[in-house]
Amino acid sequence: MFDEAEMRDMSQTTGPAPADTPRRRVPAGAHVAVRGLGHSYRRADGPVLEAMDFEIQPGEVVALLGRSGCGKSTLLHMLSGLSQPALGEVVINGNTVQGPSPRWVMMFQAPSLYPWMTVAQNVALGLRFTGRSGQIATRVPEVLDLVDLSAFADRNAQELSGGQQQRVALARSLAPRPEVLLLDEPFSALDAFTRRNLQQDVRQIARGLGLTLVLVTHDVAEAVRMADRVLVLRANPGRIAEDVTIELDEPARQGTCEAFQRAHDRLMGLYSRVADIDTAAAPQTI
Amino acid sequence: MTAVADAPIRAGMPSLARLRGPLNAAIGIGLLLGLWWLGGRAVADNPDLFAFANFAPEPTLRRLWSMLGSGEVVEMTLPSLYRVGAGMALAAAIGVPVGILIGRMARLREITNIPFQFLRMISPLSWMPIAVMAFDTWDGAIVFLIAVAAVWPILFSTAAGLRRIDPAWLKVARNLGANPFHMLFVVILPAIAVDILTGIRLALGVAWVVLVPAEYLGVTSGLGYAINDARDTLDYDRLAATVVVIGVIGFALDSAASAAIRKFNWVRDTH
Asked: What share of chain A is helix, strand, coil (3-state, %, to 5)?
């Protein structure tokens, strides 16, 4: 176990700041602010989320880490505008989120592609829905190329593997050029190898585009691999217990070096304390 | 060695398997014709039933051939197809939207459940006297009877399809900026196309059955009228030929509906 001061100290020595890496371009992502957000479900005993206050910078990759039932998914739904908080507000680029918009797009656990459409038709939907059908011919091949699925454009969505389907879902989310991409445990149904590849690819794509990326996860290794910053959530009621910066360079995020392991152990220690898990019994993901 | 010996037989199997369907269909048709012929012989040999000998295949098919040549078949079929088409269109125009509504809203489904099940179990033909009183024209009454018969399969099948829609499909669409129009025409209707068409296929079967007795009403055209007319004029080969026409067209309509279902079915075996 580390104490907090020690951990903060270590985080400063784990590699160059993300802003220094050459891949980073001028962010196209939006600024996200959560102000005094709280929520309770009608039949629940207490509030699910309480006194949430945080900001996410444009182009930042933030992981919301917590056990099931801590309200992290509820929080993400509120960021996406698919549900409305009982208290407080979500502000994206200065505007309060009133509902879903192709400017902040959510990706779900299941790819949920429309099985009666081809891959290209699925990817085109966001543009079609927002009156930008004219861009389909150029934009769809562009995003399919981004996720390495150009060869599959005319295939039926059902013919693809789980990982490929999730890549299509990613392309579908990216096609309308969102400023914020919200991921609700989108890799949890995939096998370990596919999951690692996608984790890296999604981070690289988001950083390449300068997108603001918010992902929900209960997997510490996933948080370390993908996020610039991790918000560790405590349950009952859901609150932010820790705000940890992951300062690892891109190669270190592959999880093969000591720096990754240190960051992982540090975050696992915090997570265990917040989530009240026995560290020894916690899944060793690396 | 056995593998080598087996190989040519295996190679021959696919073409045999392909022939199996048509072959069995031919056997079925042959059996039906054989039974019909036997029945015709029995009738012809019986002195009490001798007058009905024209029901046998040979006079019937000869009469059918001449009716096809003279255009009589087309003449008596077109009014019937028009009535079925109008009744089915009316049934779909009511059944699909109402089915979508009760599939989407649990409350509405609970409220309408008993009234709809009650109405569904009433034989459409029992509305006949009411239809005759309510409509100015015989055609109107017949179209109404067909619509009353056809609306239920379409309505219930649409509602069942809607309840099977993956809620995530609606969430994803909403997330990507779909308005209610998109939601209906890009997500909901394609998702339940097969359910709607299955309902239409069932409805078509019922409508075609209801058509003939409905055409016993005052009209002077259509297949039901032709049957009645042939009976009254003791024209039994014409009567039997009309029965054949009814069966063939009914079969064709059902095949068309099932081809449409295959075309719109998006479920793949690979999954």
From this structure: 40, 20, 40
- Residues A143 and A90: their CA atoms lie apart, in Å, by 28
Interface contact B105, partner A, CB < 8 A: no
What ipTM was estimated for this complex? Answer: 0.75
pTM for this model (two decimals):
0.77
Residues A155 and A212 in one domain: no
Give the CATH number of domain B57-264: 1.10.3720.10
A126-144 pLDDT per residue, tens: 999 998 999 999 999 999 9
> Is residue A126 located within the same domain as residue A186?
no
Q: Sheet with A32-39: list strands edge to edge.
A: A49-56, A32-39, A87-92, A95-96
A-interface mutation test, from B166, B176, B186, most A Cβ less than 10 A away: B176
Give the minimum alpha-carbon distance from B179 to chain A in angstroms, rounded to a whole number. Answer: 7
Q: What is the DSSP string of A89-136?
A: EEEETTEE--S-BTTEEEE-SS----TTSBHHHHHHHHHHHTT-GGGH
3-state secondary structure of A195: helix
Q: Are residues A82 and A11 in the same domain?
A: yes
